[in-house]
Amino acid sequence: MSRPGLKLLNTKLTRLLGIKTPLVLPPMAGAAGGELAGQVSSAGGFGFLSAGYGATPDEFKRQLSLARAALKTPPSGYPFPVGVGYLAWQLEAPQSPVIELISVALEHDVQAVWFSFGEDLGRWIQLVRENDARRGKKTIIFVQISTVKEALVAVNEWKVDCIVAQGVESGGHGANYASPLLNLLPSILSSLPPNGPPILAAGGLANGAHLASVLTLGAAGAVLGTRFLLAYESLYSHAQRRALVAASSDLSAWDHARETLGWPAGIDGRGLRNSTVEDFEKGIDIEILKSKFREGLKNQDTDRIIVWAGTGVGQMNQIQTAKSIVEELHQDCIDHLAAVAEICS
Ligand SMILES: Cc1cc2nc3c(=O)[nH]c(=O)nc-3n(C[C@H](O)[C@H](O)[C@H](O)COP(=O)(O)O)c2cc1C
User: Fold this and answer.
1) Mind telling me which SUPFAM superfamilies this protein's record contains (predicted)?
2) N or C: which terminus of the chain has fewer CB atoms within 10 Å of its end residue's CB?
3) What is the 76 CA–ligand 1 centroid distance (Å)?
4) What fold, for 12-237+310-344?
5) Residue 314 vs residues 55, 223, 249: alpha-carbon distances, Å
6) What is the pLDDT of residue 132?
């Protein structure tokens, strides 16, 4: 963050990661690759890339090198201020090829890992810690959770370094049993000791005023997924980005249409409602839906393919670089915090 006169935001998260803006790009499968993650970190936030959905070790290494290129860091070693996110249910599948991608990330010295959506996140956290112990290193561990009970397990049993509280408003997959963020976040904060790990807010956040509001509630930072789908560096197609600019949101039938079943019970998806959803609700034969979906992929027909989006999407109206999003949110957050401080004076 080199702009003259820009104030710093100092939270538990910025101190933990050594960053300037308490803003995290989540590891969005199919959307957050190395370039986007690297650009977000380079701009002063912190970026995760996703290990989800069929990345081979070679492709995954290519994404890691794209992150290094965006960060202009040397091809190996520290510092490498990005993280990698894993869908734990994919790790838990028999003979999961994704497990190997944990060692690949750690060998590449990523600063952090992120686990979500599984039966036993503790098992993967343990794996990372054992690897760290062998190499004499410390990888920062994030977990994404959606209830107070899950937060207590993450803090008391797994002793994680950072918690992402995902409200029901979030884009992509999320717990259909989660509370709205405005209730979830204070409930988690009041259940944990003040000297616990940073708690981040995720779900439906779109701008710097939202970042300021979750900091005011007591979060140490915010996780914005959908907003970064609109960045030029996301893996989304331009047609998907344009659909987001024009959007409103809801529901998931797409896991059936694109055959990405296997998510744990209670995990649903939120994205732009389209003809795939409507046909699914009408009970149209699933083979027809799959075939139309495959056809839609060829020409990026956003009336057929998935465009994941959180409830904040209606407040996003511009396709930008990741850097300008981070900088805009930083300044906008400071302006809002300053305005609130005036109310108290
Ligand atoms: C396209 C997309 C893919 C996502 N993929 C993942 C994922 O692989 N792992 C994960 O933990 N969360 C994933 N999420 C959820 C994010 O971690 C985060 O909770 C969410 O984006 C926050 O809500 P927002 O999109 O309204 O900002 C995804 C979200 C989106 C929009």
Assistant:
1) Inosine monophosphate dehydrogenase (IMPDH)
2) C
3) 28
4) TIM Barrel (3.20.20)
5) 31, 17, 8
6) 97
